[in-house]
């Protein structure tokens, strides 16, 4: 894991991207694991902390895996336990993005499967079906967070039904791109369902070949970061 300053910048950029693409407004939060005990996370919405487009590197707060504030002048989000319990359950996960992104949330509510239909985007939903945490309550305790982590299992994304989604990865960039790709897939799956046609689902062997063909996430991240800075 690179230094904290860089992680703060990446986290702020993730907020700007999620806002720019309409995946978050003032709700939702990305985080990154700093070390075995500490997590850096976007702070709670407040009179001083408004839309995701305004997030600055210095606004981010540090919390412990118990969810306690360790460093920062703002409060951590009440739903920080989504993050802390996933980090406890998944040593492989270095970044968690939680949003209320509309199309993915809609598919979760309506039980519309988000299948691998688009080539660049599909690796995020390779493991089917996408798990569903069937509860719309706010995740405000470690017990609730542990249930979300259990629902996620070893997947990259999970529906929080009637609420939003979670995307996890080993970098902020990939967790954010995962949320973006999930939303694009949700939109296409929804439209296919509307057409009443049977979609062509990308088969496993094609998906494996595609994964070998795809460039690293760096270029996609640079594109979205530039878009969000305009
Ligand atoms: Zn939420």
Q: What does this protein structure show overall?
A:
The chain is of the alpha+beta class and 230 residues long. It has a single domain, classed as L-fuculose-1-phosphate Aldolase, CATH 3.40.225. The chain is built from 7 helices and 8 strands. The chain has helices at residues 4-20, 80-89, 102-110, 142-152, 172-195, 204-213, 217-229, and strands spanning 29-33, 38-41, 61-64, 69-71, 95-99, 132-133, 157-160, 164-169. An 8-stranded mixed beta sheet has the order 4-3-2-1-5-8-7-6, with helices on both faces. Strand 7 (157-160) and strand 8 (164-169) form a beta hairpin. Helix 1 runs parallel beside helix 5, helix 1 crosses helix 7 (217-229) and helix 2 (80-89) packs across helix 4. The model has no long low-confidence stretch (mean pLDDT 96). The structure holds zinc ion. Zinc ion is lined by residues 27, 79, 98, 100, 163-164.
At the first level of CATH, the class is Alpha Beta
Q: Describe the global form.
A: globular
**How many helix segments?**
7
Q: How much of the polypeptide forms β-strand, as a percent range?
A: 5-15%
Q: Let me know the largest β-sheet.
A: 8 strands, mixed
Derived from helix and strand composition plus strand pairing, the structural class reads: alpha+beta
CATH superfamily: Class II aldolase/adducin N-terminal domain
Proportion of helical residues:
40-55%
Whole-number average pLDDT?
Answer: 96
The termini sit apart by 29 Å
The low-pLDDT segments are none
Tell me what the CATH architecture is.
3-Layer(aba) Sandwich
Radius of gyration: 17 Å
Cofactors, ions, other ligands = zinc ion
Strand order of the largest sheet: 4-3-2-1-5-8-7-6
CATH fold descriptor: L-fuculose-1-phosphate Aldolase
What is the number of beta strands? Answer: 8
Order of secondary-structure elements: HEEEEHEHEHEEHHH
The count of domains is 1
């Amino acid at each position: 894991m690179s230094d904290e300053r860089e992680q703060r910048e990446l986290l702020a950029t993730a907020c700007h991207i999620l806002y720019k693409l309409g995946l978050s407004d003032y709700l939702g939060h990305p985080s990154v694991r700093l070390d075995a005990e500490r997590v850096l996370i976007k702070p709670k919405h407040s009179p001083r902390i408004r839309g995701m487009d305004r997030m600055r590197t210095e606004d981010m707060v540090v919390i412990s895996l118990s969810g306690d504030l360790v460093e920062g002048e703002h409060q951590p989000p009440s739903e920080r336990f989504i993050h802390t319990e996933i980090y406890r359950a998944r040593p492989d996960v270095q970044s968690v993005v939680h949003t209320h992104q509309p199309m993915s949330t809609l598919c979760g509510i309506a039980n519309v499967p988000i299948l691998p239909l688009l080539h660049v985007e599909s690796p995020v939903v390779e493991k089917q079906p996408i798990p569903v945490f069937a509860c719309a309550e706010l995740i405000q305790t470690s017990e609730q967070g542990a249930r979300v982590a259990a629902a996620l299992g070893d997947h990259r994304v999970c529906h929080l039904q009637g609420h939003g989604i979670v995307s996890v990865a080993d970098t902020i960039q990939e967790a954010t791109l995962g949320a973006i790709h999930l939303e694009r897939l949700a939109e296409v799956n929804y439209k296919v369902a509307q057409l009443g046609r049977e979609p062509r689902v990308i088969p496993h062997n094609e998906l494996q070949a595609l994964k070998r063909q795809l460039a690293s996430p760096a270029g996609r991240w640079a594109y979205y970061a530039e878009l969000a800075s305009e």
